[in-house]
Amino acid sequence: MVKLSRGERIFEILNTVFLILLSVVFLLPLFTVVSTSLIGEAEYARRGLFFLWPEKPVLTAYELLLSGGSVVLNAYTITLFRVIVGTFLNLVFTITLAYVLARRNLPGRTLLTIFVFVPMVFSGGLIPSFILMDTIGLLNSVWAMIIPGLVSAWNMLIMRNFFMALPPELEEAAIVDGAGPLTILLRIVLPLSLPAIATIGLFYAVAHWNAWFDAAIYIKDLRKLPVQVILRGILQQAIMLEPETMANVQLMPPSAALQAAMVVISTVPILLVYPFLQKYFVKGALIGSIKG
Amino acid sequence: MTVEISESPLAALDRPTLRGTRYNFAGILKAINKNKFYYLLALPGLLYFLIFHYLPMFGIVVAFKDITPFSGLDGILHEPFVGLIHFKHWIQSYYFVNVMGNTLIISGLKLLVGFPAPIILALLINEVRTTWFKRGVQTISYMPHFLSVVVVSGLVMNLLSSQGGLVNQAVVALGGKSHAYLTDPAYFRSILVSSHVWQHVGWGTILYLAAMSGIDPQLYEAAMIDGANKWQQIRHITLPGIAFVIVILFIFAVGGLLNAGFEQILLLYSPSVYSVSDIIDTYVYRSGLLGMQYSFATAVGVFKSVLAMILLLGANWFARRLGQTGIW
Fold first, then answer.
1. Which CATH architecture has domain A71-240?
2. Are residues B18 and A32, on separate chains, in Cβ contact within 8 Å?
3. Looking at the domain assignment, is residue B129 inside a domain?
4. Which of A55, A198, B3, B182 has its CA 20 to 30 A from that of A90?
5. ipTM of the complex
6. What tens digit of pLDDT does each residue of A249-280 get?
């Protein structure tokens, strides 16, 4: 154990206290949103506002939002669709492209690589993309949340760098054994790349879970909107709950509680898998790119 | 853990592939034929980039014509060119100074606070010697990075709500008056910057911490023997050890200076704070998609894309001049 000077000991104590306070700052907004979501109309009317935790927490807001056939439950199925199908297609398109661009002696490889990276520096912008989606008939389709973002150049880069780091002897040995290129990819390269595939798969999945803007501009039909867009609608009080669900509750929860409950509903799933995500994301951030 | 940043992501572009091997036409055909499986495999991905990235690039012709949502593809192809008139309107418009100013101010404030913050936090976390505490702080501080912008905007609204939001409760408890902070132009930019830093500061420490753990511990031992105190060690060992990460991340930050946080602002702003928060992207969104002025909005978007490209290339050039590895 190193002997600490007085100054160093004081620094250490202050540092610890500061980092504890900072952790509280990171957690506090989540705590208050949960407490707001649990306040009932009666208590709200009586006290106007409450401090930190309601006296009688009620789940009315959640019951309302999650009642059978509700917009929110429907939005969850849409979000699940975009996460599962979207991530799968992301992986297929990203892996095939990365595998080819990782081949050092492929004629034209430099040209193809430049072709993929130019859009990172220059883009046509919002309106031309919107006109394109309109022209090819993807407006108001659930595929509008999946197809325009099939390949992220950054994720492709991580994958390509991983493939390039695989020892070339593997492929040479397989060729000697008479394996064709497809067999090599499916039976040798992919099984060896599972950690990298898992990492970028999670990148894509979290991006799909959190995305809202594409759906907000491309999709008009309420029943095709994912959770994040419904959350936004409820936050901006642009989406009203169906009258039949409201008829079932005697006392409507305050709108602040409804909004808070919706925030909680859209956050809990990601927090449940967070410890698992963290490990892969940190690794991915370190190997592939310097972009977070 | 060391970070491989010496191999810059796009360095592969510089690597010769065909160089050194002389191909004649028949040779090229033969080589392509031999590799046709691979070209076929890459085809779906390449087509995706062609359709969803290159077609919109050609779509910027819209900025040089008079296109409405009703012109259709035919209009985009056959309408006559009107020159730079939309660009002229934009630069002369009342909004130009306001929107450009907001973009640069908000972005500049985020850079000013948000760039050093993770460096400082990483230095502090790096000094923690109790492993479980260090890990705990990291886990908690990374967490907001995984929340969507919509959720974070919901958290901000909840905290600042004038109906029992925590901030207003505290203000009232201290004898102040409840206030609608989110619709007050005096507070709006600070709210944007704070919520941005709250969400990203923890995640931003990752690369710095990795670089710090790659610094040779013997350097610190030698410095301690020479009587260097903590601050001197940070100043002369830790900071120089992470200087390359700082430079590269700074290039990214400057290259993205025109991205002031479109989605965040779109979710939090309202007409009462447009004067301090309307940025290029929100203006393009409102005038183009809500106001249906396709050509004008595209012109504004192209204006931004070109400036952003110059910024990014310039920052990269500058980093290379400094003798650091650029992005490419």
1. Orthogonal Bundle (1.10)
2. no
3. yes
4. B3
5. 0.90
6. 556 778 888 899 999 999 999 999 998 888 88
